[in-house]
Amino acid sequence: LDLLGKTVTRLGPAGSGQRCKLANQIAVAVGMVAWCEALAAAKAEGLDPVLVQQVISGGAAGSWAMSHLAPRALAGDDAPGFLIKHLVKDIYLAREEAEAAAIDLPGLAVAERLYEALAAAGQSDAGTQALWQHYHHSGAEA
Q1: How far is CA 135 from CA 99, 110, 130, 132, in A?
Q2: Global pTM?
Q3: Which of 16, 39, 53, 83 could join 11 via S-S bond, C-beta 3.0 to 4.6 A?
Q4: Residue 75: which of 55, 56, 57, 48 has the closest Cα?
Q5: Structural domains in the chain?
Q6: Which is catalytic among the residues 6, 21, 43, 89?
């Protein structure tokens, strides 16, 4: 396992690692929506989204996605890292786990709807940062 990552952590019995990955993907999916909405709102208020991204990346709203994917999206770099079709698959799996545990995840439901719409529009093989284009071109409506 040391060959697969920097940190190896025992989380519990078999299946715990998969559940942790799904928790990570929930955070990724919802976080992507959050930074897209934040930057779209800033842009709609007349602020430069590039400058806003730089300012808030170092604060409480900062994340790997905000620091690495947002600048790429703002620059029009659609080169995929993690594909939308894979995130949609992970969102489905996370939703199924949540439903089985009777957990309501409304943020995940919003992310699912948005990423499904991108996939349906032919963006399945685009990088997850392509979500910015939805906000950038649609007037920031979710």
Answers
A1: 28, 13, 9, 5
A2: 0.85
A3: 16
A4: 48
A5: 17-138 (1.10.1040.10)
A6: 21
In order along its 142 residues, the chain shows pLDDT tens digits of: 778 778 888 888 988 888 999 999 999 999 999 999 999 999 999 999 999 999 999 999 899 999 999 999 999 887 888 899 999 999 999 999 999 999 999 999 999 999 999 999 999 998 888 888 888 776 544 4
Helix axes 106-118 and 16-44, enclosed angle (nearest 10) = 80
Does 6 participate in catalysis according to the annotation? no
Alpha helices in 48-130 (DSSP H): 49-57, 64, 70-74, 84-100, 106-118
